[in-house]
Amino acid sequence: MIEELDSMEKNDTWRLVQLPTNKKCIDVKWVFKTKLKADGQVAKYKARLVARGFLQKYGQDYYEVYAPVARMETIRLIVAIAVKNNWSMYQLDVKSTFLNGELEEEVYVNQPPGFEIKGKEEYVYKLDKALYGLKQAPRAWNKKIDSFLVQQGFLKCVTEHGIYCRSTTNKLIVCLYVDDMIVTGNNEEEMNAFKKNMMKKFEMSDLGNLTYFLGIEFEMNSQGVLIHQRKYAQDILKRFKC
After folding, report:
1. Are strands 171-177 and 163-167 parallel, antiparallel or unpaired?
2. Closest listed residue to residue 146, CA positions, set 127, 131, 161, 128
């Protein structure tokens, strides 16, 4: 929980203010989750501060909410292209993704439960950047990452807005699904340079070679890549005690 709040302070997500008389405040709550690896081992424990977005009203504290992501069919196609050309594939994960997106609307939230500032309990936070749970959070993040990738020389696919390509002397492809990214191309140095630029701009994790993405497992072998959902199937069987 402290790590989550530190990320918000570091990212200039909000400012402590008094609530204007003509504005309403949105409640927030803590959500806890255990993220697992493909083999079932614990990857990390997460505490997420989430806004109760269902309290928002269209036209008052949010407008546009749509944010494109890469389709599963497209992800499989990108993997097939990379395997055919013998390209390396890497996975990146952006930490506190939605906290990077700037808000255009005026939104206020209550102080986090258990972390109210003494003597200023009646104060609230004015959000400068998005918070998880807000209806416009995915769109705000998508606009942020889209702008950054365009600045880096990428072109967005006109039919699949979650795919970005950069083609100079080398080829580099980025497949974006909210905060998860697949990076592939024909030049290792260029991919490493791109990953360093991403880490300078955003707080993120380099998960190494592509092995587990959106519940799908990828196993490289001499004949190409095996794509399966063994862990997902096992979880379903375990859930229903089969």
Report:
1. antiparallel
2. 161
Distance CA 4, CA 26 (A): 19
Residue 33: alpha-carbon gap to chain centroid = 15
pLDDT tens by residue, 124-151: 999 998 888 899 988 989 999 999 999 9
Inter-residue contact 228 to 55 (CB < 8 Å): no
pLDDT band at residue 38 using 50, 70 and 90 as cut-offs: low
Measured in residues, the chain has a length of: 242
* Domain limits, the chain: 2-239
Quote the CA–CA distance of 228 and 226 in Å, as a whole number: 6
- Cα gap 235→227, rounded to integer Å: 17
Assess contact for 29 and 102: CB atoms under 8 A.
no
What is d(CA 62, CA 29) in angstroms, rounded to the nearest whole number? Answer: 20
**Measured between alpha carbons, how far is 208 from 214 in angstroms, rounded to an integer?**
15
C-alpha span between 242 and 239 (Å, rounded): 8
Euclidean distance between CA atoms 27 and 124, whole angstroms? 10
Closest by alpha carbon to 185, among 163, 208, 167, 204?
167
d(CA 107, CA 153): 33
